[in-house]
Amino acid sequence: MAKKTVGISDVAREAGVSVGTVSNSFNRPDSVAPETRARILAVVERLGYVRSESARQLRTGTSRIVALLVLDLANPFFVEVANGAERAARAAGLGVMVCTSAQSPSEEAEYIGLFTEQQVRGVLVIPADPTGHSLEPLRRQRIPYVVVDRLVQDAEVCSVSVDDVVGGRLAVEHLLTQGHRRIAYISGPPHLQQIRDRRTGALDAIAAAGLPPETLHELPTAHMTIAAGRDAAARLLGLADRPTAVFCANDLLALGLEQALYAAGVKVPEEVAIVGYDDIEFASAVAVPLTSVRQPAAEMGRLAAQMLLAEADAPGEDGSENGSQNGGKSRHEHRAVVLQPELVVRTSSLHRVG
Amino acid sequence: MAKKTVGISDVAREAGVSVGTVSNSFNRPDSVAPETRARILAVVERLGYVRSESARQLRTGTSRIVALLVLDLANPFFVEVANGAERAARAAGLGVMVCTSAQSPSEEAEYIGLFTEQQVRGVLVIPADPTGHSLEPLRRQRIPYVVVDRLVQDAEVCSVSVDDVVGGRLAVEHLLTQGHRRIAYISGPPHLQQIRDRRTGALDAIAAAGLPPETLHELPTAHMTIAAGRDAAARLLGLADRPTAVFCANDLLALGLEQALYAAGVKVPEEVAIVGYDDIEFASAVAVPLTSVRQPAAEMGRLAAQMLLAEADAPGEDGSENGSQNGGKSRHEHRAVVLQPELVVRTSSLHRVG
DNA sequence: GATGGGTATTGAATCGATTCAATGCCTCGA
DNA sequence: TCGAGGCATTGAATCGATTCAATACCCATC
After folding, report:
1. CA-based, 20 to 30 A from A69: which of B135, B182, B190, B237?
2. Can you list the pairs that A104-110 forms with residues at least 24 positions away whose Cβ atoms lie under 8 Å?
C-alpha cells in the first residue's frame, strides 16, 4: 500500500539531498544553491508536495492564521470591519478565521478556547463579554489580541475604536441646526458603553445649544435590529408630544423606523427627520436615503490587524527580554487608537422646522 | 528562566502519572479511573494547561476546523449561508474559518492552498472559478469538500444548490398572473450558470402561458450590486416600450432599481412591479417591501456542513479499503442535493395590470 | 603546498500529543 | 493457593518540519 501523503523526506530522497536542504529552500531560499533549489522545486511540483502546517507550527510554535471574533455578521457594519481586517492580514500572508459570537459571552469563551488551542498568531475581538473575563486565556497563553470597536484604557492591551461621544454630538447638532427641539433617541441595550457615549454626545450638543436635557427623549430597545426599529416606531407614534426628529443608535434601527413610519403615513423627513449610525451600504439604498454617522469600519479592521501583527512580531512584555538582539527599544507599546466618525447628510434629515 | 508553555508532560509529572494517562483522560475518559482523572483535571486547572492542537493534529493527521470560502460577505445571502454552516459545524465541535474570495479565481486558489497546508477537516466552497481547476489541490490531498450554491453533476463530489430554473419560473409566473405582458430581466453577468438557469425558468413560464419569448427583455449587468441596480433603472426607463414588470436576479439589484425608480417618480408597483431574488432581510425592510424568490440559504449552509462532516468521517473512495472494520457499506456516496426555492409575495409586485 | 574564508549541505535533536503493546494489580472462582 | 481475566497505567515510538552546529568543498592567497 502506498504511503498516505508525501512528506519532506520523500522530496529529499527523490531530489538526492537532505531534508534540511529542502526545508532551507523554502525558508531561506538564498542559502541554497540556485540549481539545487530548482531541482528540489521540480521534485516538489512532480510529487505534489504540500508542507504540513501542523508540523511546522509544532516546531516553530506559531501559526499562520489570525482569528477575528465579531458579534454578528448579519450587521453589515461588522462585515466591513472583517473585510478590512482580512485584507490587511492577507497582505501579510496570513489567513483569517472569522467567527461570530452572536453576542453571547459563552460562545465567545468557547471560541477563545479554540483559538488558544490552535495557538493562533493573534486575535481580533469585538467583545461580547463586557467584563473581559473571557479573554483571560489569551493573556495566560501570551497570545496577542486587539480589542476592536471598544475603547480599552487598560494599557495592557491595544484597542481600536471610534469616538461615540463625538458621533452622538454630530448627529444631534445637525438636527438642532435643522430647527428640531424635540428629539427622540432610539438607543438599544442601555448597558452598552456605546449607547451611553452616544447619549452623552447628544446631550452635549443640546447643552451647547442652551437647551434643557429633556429635549432628548430616550427610547431604549432590547436589540439593535430592523425589527426593533419597527417596534420603536410604534412607541414613538404613541408619545404625547411627538418628537420631530429621531436619532437612532444604528442604521438597522433607523431602517426599521423609516419603514414603519412610511407604513403609518408619516412623512420622512417632513414630519419626522431621521439620523442613523454606521452608514452601512443599505442606508443610502432606500427610497429616502438615510442621514447617518459614518464609522470608518474597514479602516478600523485594517488598523486593528496591523497593530496585532506589530504586536505579534514584537518581543513580549516581561522584563526578562532585554540584552537580546533588539536593544529593548522596539518593545511593543500598547495603544488605544480612537478614530473619528463623520456625519453623512442625506434626505432623511433634510427639512427645516420651526 | 521558566519554561515557556506548560505541556502534557508537566501535567503528568505534577499529577504523578504518565503522559499516556493524561492523554487518555482527555480522549477516552472512561478508560481512566475517576479519581485519577479528577486529580489530573485539577492539575490541568491549576497549571492552566491547554493542549497544543498542532501536536495533536500532527499525530492524528486531521484538524478540527473546516473552511468556508464564499464569494462576498457583503451580500447578506452569503452571510446566511455562512451562519447555517457555522452552526452545524459548531454543533459537531469544529471551528469554522470563513474566508472571502471576492469572486476572484486567483484569491480562491490562494485560499485553497492555505487550506491544504492547514490540512483542514474539509472545505465548503462557493466556487469563483467555473472550471473547478482551483479545487484540484483538495482532490490531490484527499481533503473532502462540498460545493455550495452550485449544482455539480460530477458524482465525484457533493454539492448543495437551489433549483434556479424553478426560481425563475416562480418569479415570472407570478408576474404573468398579475397581468404583465412585458417583463424585464435584470440579470447579471451572463456567464453565470445561475443567471442562465433563472432565465430558462422565466422563459418556461412565458412559454407555458402561450406567450412569445420576446415577452422577456434581458438587461445584463456586470455586477450584481445595488449600484448596478440603479444603473439598470436608467436603461430600463430608456426603453422604447417600457416593461411593466421587472424580475431581478438578486435583491441587491432589485433594491437599487426600486430606489432609482422612486427617485425618478416612477411608482412601484403601480407603474413598474418588481420581483427580486434571495429574500435577504433588507428586502422586506424597505418602504415598499420587495417580493422575492426565497432561497433556503441557512439550510443550504447547514446541509452542506453536515454532508461534509459525513464525508470526512466516512472512509475514502479508493477500493483498497474493503475488508476493514466497516463492511464497505458505509462508504461515502457523493450526492448532489437540490433544494427548492419559494416565492414570497410582498407589496412590490401587488398590482394587477391589463 | 598550506592556510583561511566563504558557501552549500548534512543529520540529528526537537517540538508536544497520541497510540498501543506490554505490564502490573486486583479480584473472583475453582 | 493458583490462574484467568479485567481494568488501569505505562513508556517508547511516531507524526513531519525546523534548526543549527558540524562538515565538506572550493577557490584565492600567501
Report:
1. B135
2. A104/A128, A105/A129, A105/A134, A108/A69, A108/A134, A109/A134
- Measured from Cα to the C1' atom, the residue closest to C14 is A59
B111 close to A (CB below 8 A): yes
Q: In Å, how far are A133, A287, A325, B48 from A142, measured between CA atoms?
A: 15, 50, 21, 12
pTM of the model: 0.93
| Backbone dihedral angles phi then psi of residue B216, each to the nearest 5 degrees | -95, 125
For strand C, the positions having any atom within 7 A of a protein Cβ are 7-12, 14-21
Q: How far is A63 from chain B (nearest CA, A)?
A: 9
Nearest Cα residue in chain B from A85: B99
Q: Rounded distance, CA B198 to CA A40, Å?
A: 49
Strand D bases near protein CB (under 7 Å) are 7-12, 14-21
Digits of tens for pLDDT over chain B (354 positions)?
455 689 999 999 999 999 999 999 999 999 999 999 999 999 999 999 999 999 999 999 989 999 999 999 999 999 999 999 999 999 998 999 999 999 999 999 999 999 999 999 999 999 999 899 999 999 999 999 999 999 998 888 999 999 999 999 999 999 999 999 999 999 999 999 999 999 999 999 999 999 999 999 999 999 999 999 999 999 999 999 999 999 999 999 999 999 999 999 999 999 999 999 999 999 999 999 999 999 999 999 999 999 999 998 875 544 343 333 343 445 678 899 999 999 999 999 999 997
- Residues of chain A with C-beta less than 8 angstroms from the C-beta of B264: none
If residue B174 lies in a helix (H) or strand (E), which one and from where to where?
helix B164-177
